[in-house]
Design brief:
Largest sheet: 2 strands, antiparallel
Radius of gyration: 13 Å
Structural class: alpha+beta
Number of helices: 2
Shape: globular
Number of domains: 1
Number of strands: 6
Oligomer: single chain
Strand content: 15-25%
Distance between the termini: 37 Å
Order of helices and strands: EEEEEHHE
Helix content: 10-25%
Length: about 90
């Protein structure tokens, strides 16, 4: 059995409104539900069906989703169920 790849704990968020990119730390114990673009100020929210802004606008999904896809959190689910939303950095 191959060991699971380490979880990425930082992601790049791309603002769909102005195209700005920002490298941001990803919380491991919560879903980041709101993110204010540092360039244009637009507040991003997850797209329908996504658990957080990293899953919608990030270069990699959030750590809980990475773990689920790797099979290290038990049965895979479509969202970060059981994790509390986090407001932003």
């Amino acid at each position: 059995m191959t060991p699971a790849a380490p979880l990425m704990r930082e992601g790049i968020i791309t603002c769909p409104h102005c195209g700005a990119i920002a490298s941001e730390p990803m919380p491991e114990d919560a879903c980041l539900f709101f993110y204010a673009c540092k360039t244009c100020g637009v507040v991003l929210r997850p797209k329908s069906g996504d658990c957080c802004v990293f899953c919608s606008y990030g270069s990699v999904p959030c750590p809980p989703m990475q773990a689920q896809r790797a099979g290290s959190m038990g049965e895979a689910q479509n969202e970060c169920s059981g994790l509390k939303p986090k407001r932003g950095p």
